[in-house]
Amino acid sequence: MKLELRGITKRFPGVVANDAVDLVIEEGEIHGLLGENGAGKSTLMNILYGLYTADEGEVLIDGEPVTFAGPGDAIDAGIGMVHQHFMLVPVFTVAENITLGVEHTKGLGLLDRRSAEAEVHRLSEEFGLPVDPHAVVEDLPVGVQQRVEILKALHREARLLILDEPTAVLTPQETEDLFRAMRSLKESGRSIVFISHKLKEHKAIVDRISVLRRGRIVGTADPATTSEQELANLMVGRPVGLTVDKADRETGEAVLAVRGITVLDARGKPAVDGVDLDVHRGEIVAIAGVEGNGQTELVRAITGLDPVAGGTIELLGRDVTAFGRKELLRAGVGHIPEDRNREGIVGDFTVAENLVLPMWDAAPFAERGRRRFGAIAEVAEREVDDFDIRTPSIHTTAGSLSGGNAQKVVVAREFARPLDLLVAAQPTRGVDVGSIEYIHRRIVDKRNEGAAVVIVSSELDEVLALADRVAVMFHGRLVGPFPMPVSREAVGLLMAGATPDEAMGATR
Amino acid sequence: MTTATPPDLDRRNRRFGIFALVLAAIAGAVFATGTAGVATTFQLNDVFGEPAYATLPAVVVPVAPTALFLALVIAGVGLYQAVRGFGDRATIVISVLLGLFVLAFLVWAARGQQLQVLALLRGTMRAAVPLALGALSGVLCERAGVINIAIEGQFLAAAFTAALVSSATGSPWLGLVGGILAGGLVGALLAVLSIRYRADQIVVGVVLIVLATGVTSFLTSQLLVPNPGLNAPDRFGAVTVPVLGDIPLIGPLLFRHSVTVYLMLLAVVVVQIALFRTRWGLRLRAVGEHPKAADTVGIRVLATRYRAVILGGMVAGIGGAYFTLDAAGQFSREMSGGRGFIALAAMLVGRYSPAGALGAALIFGFADALSTSLQILNVGIPSTLLLTAPYVVTILVVAGLVGRLRMPAADGQPYVKE
Q: How far apart are CA A335 and CA A493, in angstroms?
C-alpha cells in the first residue's frame, strides 16, 4: 500500500508537535523515521494509527483520502503498529493475543481455539516468524513477544507496519532476526515505517530516511549515500560529534573493589549472583547487557540504595558494604540513576534545590538548622552556566525541563562535587544527540581528573565509545571486564549469553 | 507461575507438616479420650418430608477408635509431608487432612447422639447460595478491572426490593426480578463512579455499602414496619427435579431445593464457560489485564467494564433476593450480616474463577451450616461463639490458602485514553 501524509499539523497547548508534515511511503518500502526525542515521531505515528486526530492535513491510502476515528479504523485500513511497550496481555497465550478483537468463533461466541492456533501456525510459517501458539506470552523472551506483536498486525492483514523503536529492547542477535523478518515482509509487498534513533540501524535496513526535527521534516535521505555524520547533523540541526575524544590515561589505585556480592530481587532470587569487580582511578569500566540481567540491582547495591545478601564492597580500601546512601555519597561516590524522573530529580522542586540536593543540610547551604538561600542560588547559577542547562530560571521546577536538560541537572549536581567513584546508569537514555555528546565529554573529563567510573548502558554504541574496559552482565553474573578493544560482535554475543571463549573466538 | 526455591519449599513443607501433626495431636488427645464405649450415629436420610425412595441405613461409629484412627492417618500423612513433602499437591493434601480433622471433630461433637448429615450438607448448599453469587459478582467486576467490595450493599438493596415487590405482587418471580434490578442499580452506581468519575474504587465500594444499609434501614422503619403487608413476601418453595430428586442422598442434596439454589449452580457454570471459553470472556479479561492493549485492537474498554459491573450487580442481586425470598421470608435490617464480605473472600480464595468461588463458598457455607448443627447438638459451646464459625473459618482460609494471589493486572485502575 502506498501511504501519503499531506500537510499534517498537530498542536498541543504551547507546542506544535507536527508542523505541515509531508511524507510518502511507497509500497514495499522500508521507510526510516529519524529524529530526536520530542521531534514529533510518536505524535505523527499516533495520528497515522488513529490515536490522535490531526488539526490540519490529510492522510491518503493508495491515493484515497481517509480519516481515522480510532485505532479500529486504522486497523481496518490495513495499518498495523508494533508499540514500543508491547500491547500484549501477559497472561494470555500467543494465539489469544494474536486473535484478540478478531477472534475465531464457532457460533454462540464460543472460541475456536484449534482454528486460532492453526491460523497462528500458518502465519508464523508464512512470514518466518517462529512462535508457539500455546505459549503464555509472559513466559516468552522480549524478542519473541515482539514477533507476536508483528504477527498480531499481520493477522489483521496489515499492509503497512509501524515499528516504534523496535530494537530498543533487543540484543544485537535478536535485532538481526528482526531485520531478516522485515526484509521478508518487504518482499511480500508490505510497507514498513521503522522508527529508531540509532543511525547504524537506519543505514543497515531502510530504503529511505525521513528526518524529523522540531515537528518538521527537515530532509529525506538515501541511506546508501548519506553518512552517519550527515544524518546526525540533520537530526540535531548543527554539527555534532559522534565519537568521544578520549586520550589514553594511566590508571591508578583501585577505588572500588566488589567481592562476590549477591543481591536478591523482590522474590528472593539472586538478581546479582556473586559479582567481582575492580575499578581503578582514571578508567571507565562500561557494563553492557540487555536490561533486566541484574545491572539495575548491581548499581543499586554499589550506590547504597539496596542491601547486599552476600559479599563485600570496598571503597579506597574501606569496607563500605553496610554504608547507607548518605554516607556513601559523602564518601565521594556520585550516582546518575537510570530513572531520572523517579530517582534523579525531585520534579516539584526548583532547579536550584535539585542542584544542591545531596548537600542540602550541610554548609554552605544550611547553617545552624537554617537554609541559606543566597548560597544555594549562587551555586545554582554557576552550575546552570557551567553545565549549559537550558532553563528559564533556577527557580523553574525541575520536572518541567526537557529530558536532556533534566539529565544535565543530575550530571551537574553529581559532577560539581569532588568524586572518587562515579556510577552512571543509562546516562544518556532519552537524551538528544546534542546532549549525549555533552554528557559523554563530562564523563571522560571526570575520568581524566582521576575518578573511577562505572557506566551501565544497554546502548552498545555508548559502551564501546566510553569504555576503557568492558564487561557484560547476563543472568546476574558479570563476564569480564576485558580491556578494549573488544569487537561489537563479541559484546553482542556475550549479551546473548555466550561464554568469553565463544564470543572472542567467533569474532577473531 | 512462580516456582518456590528449594529452601522456601522446605520451609513450607515443614510448616504444613507440623500443622498436620498439631491437628493429629488435637484429634488424638481431645476427640479420642474419655469417650470409651460411646458411639455416634450419622443419619443420612431426609428427616423432613416423606421420602419416596429407599432409605439408607444410619451409620453408627464408635467415637474413640474412629477419632484415634483418623488422628493416626493425619499424623502419618503429616509426617511424610514434613519430611519428604508432596510438592505442588501439598495444598490439596492439607485440605484433605483438614477435612478428616473436621470429620473427627463431628464424630466427637455428636457422641451419643444422631448427627443429621443430610441436613448439614443441605444447609451447606443453601448457605453457599448468596456467597457463591456474591463471589461471582466480584469475579465479573474484577476480571474486567473494577474492584467490587460493594457486594454487601448489593445484597441488602436486592433483599429489600425483592421482599417489597414479592409482597406487593404476590409473585416471588417478580420479587426476584426486582432484586436483580436493585443489585444492578447498585452495580451501575459503582460503574459510573469508578469508571466515569474514576473515584477510588475501595472508597466507592464502602460508600455504597453504607448507602444501601442506610436507605434500606430507613425504608424498613418508615415503610415496612407500619405496613407489615409489604414485608410478607411470597417465597420460593422447594422444587424436586423428577427422577434425580429420588436418588438417595444425592437427590435431597442437589435436586430438592428452591429455585435460588439451581440458579446459583447455573450461574456458576454459565459464567465459568462465558469467561474462559467465549469471545465475550476473552475481551472482558483483556480489559481487566491490559486495557490499553484491548483498546488498540478496537475493543471498547469502558463499555465492556460498564456491562461487566452492572451484570455483576445483577448476579449479586439474585444472591440478595435469596435472603428474603428463600432463607428468611421477610426483610430485616442488615440481614445479610457481612456475607457480602465473606463472598469477597470466596472470590479471593477461588482465585477469581467461578468454579473456585463455588468451592470456597461451599467451605464457608459448611462452616455456616455447621454452627447451626452444633447448636442443635448442644455440644456445650456457647451458641454465640458457634455463630462466629463462618467468620473464623474465613479468616483462617484466607490467611492460609490465598498466599500468592494474582489479581487481574489492571484491577482497580481507571482507564484513561490518551
A: 29
By Cβ distance, the residue of A83, A103, A156 closest to B282 is: A103
All residues of chain B having their beta carbon less than 8 Å from the beta carbon of residue A83 are 296
Q: Are B192 and B96 within one domain?
A: no
At B214-237, the pLDDT tens digits run 999 999 999 999 998 999 898 898
Q: How far is B411 from chain A (nearest CA, A)?
A: 14
Contacts B279 to A, Cβ<8 Å: 103, 105, 109-111
Let me know if residue B415 belongs to a domain: no
In this structure, are B39 and B163 located in the same domain? no
With an 8 Å Cβ cutoff, are A70 and B298 in contact?
yes
Query: A108 is written with which cell numbers?
Result: 454462540
**Residue B390 within any structural domain of the chain:** yes
Indicate where chain A has its CATH 3.40.50.300 domain(s): 1-78+159-236, 254-506
- pLDDT class of B90 with cuts at 50, 70, 90: confident
pTM metric for this prediction: 0.79
| CB contacts < 8 A (A, B) | 73
Q: What phi and psi, each to the nearest 5 degrees, are found at residue A264?
A: -95, 145
Residues B215 and B332 grouped into a single domain: yes
Same domain, B165 and B262: yes
Taking any CB pair shorter than 8 Å as contact, residues of chain B touching chain A are: 1-2, 5, 8, 277-280, 282-283, 285-286, 289-290, 292-299, 409, 418
Question: Which residues in B lie closer than 8 A to residue A103 (C-beta atoms)?
Answer: 279, 282
CA distances from residue B267 to A132, B260, B272, B286, B319 in whole angstroms, order as listed:
34, 10, 8, 22, 11
Instruction: Name the domain boundary from B75, B92, B112.
Output: B112
Class of domain A1-78+159-236: alpha beta
Find out whether the peptide bond into B7 is cis, omega within 30 degrees of 0: no
In a domain, B408, yes or no: no
Shared domain check, B291 and B209: yes
* Predicted local confidence at residue B1, as pLDDT: 36
Q: What is the spatial distance between Cα A459 and Cα A472, in angstroms, rounded to a whole number? A: 12
Across the interface, which of A96, A108, A156 has its CB nearest the CB of B282?
A: A96
Residues B127 and B145 grouped into a single domain: yes
Q: Is position B380 within any domain?
A: yes
Task: Return the residue of A nearest to B301 by Cα.
Answer: A101
Q: Are B187 and B333 in contact (CB under 8 A)?
A: no
A3-12/A56-61 β-pairing: antiparallel
Q: Please check whether residues B270 and B228 belong to one and the same domain.
A: yes
- The answer to whether A112 contacts chain B (CB < 8 Å) is no
- Identify the residue with better confidence: A146 or B47: A146
Task: Give the residue among B343, B350, B399 at the shortest CA–CA distance from B368.
Answer: B343
Structural domain count of chain B: 2
pLDDT at A296: 87
What is the predicted pLDDT for the residue at B2? 40
Instruction: Report the distance separating Cα A475 and Cα B250, nearest Å.
Output: 56
Closest residue of chain A to B288, computed from CA coordinates? A89
Residues in chain A with pLDDT values less than 50: 508
The residue that leads in pLDDT, B141 or A221, is B141
The boundaries of the domain holding residue B62 are 6-112
Average pLDDT of every residue of chain B = 88
ipTM of the complex model: 0.86
pLDDT-derived band at B3, boundaries 50, 70, 90? very low
Do B160 and B97 belong together in one domain?
Answer: no
Q: Which residues of chain A does B297 touch, with a Cβ-Cβ cutoff of 8 Å? A: 71-72, 75, 87, 100-102, 152, 156
Determine, for residues A110 and B278 on separate chains, whether the beta-carbon distance falls below 8 Å.
yes
Q: Which residues of A touch B277 (CB under 8 A)?
A: 110-111
| Three-class secondary structure assignment of A385-427 | HHCCCCCCCCCCEHHHCCHHHHHHHHHHHHHCCCCCEEEEECC
B257 has a pLDDT exceeding 50: yes
- Considering the domain A254-506 in this protein, what is its CATH number? 3.40.50.300
What was the pLDDT predicted at B58?
83
Q: Which of A51, A156, A267 sits opposite B2 (nearest CB)?
A: A267
Interface test with A, best of B296, B300, B302 (most A CBs within 10 A): B296
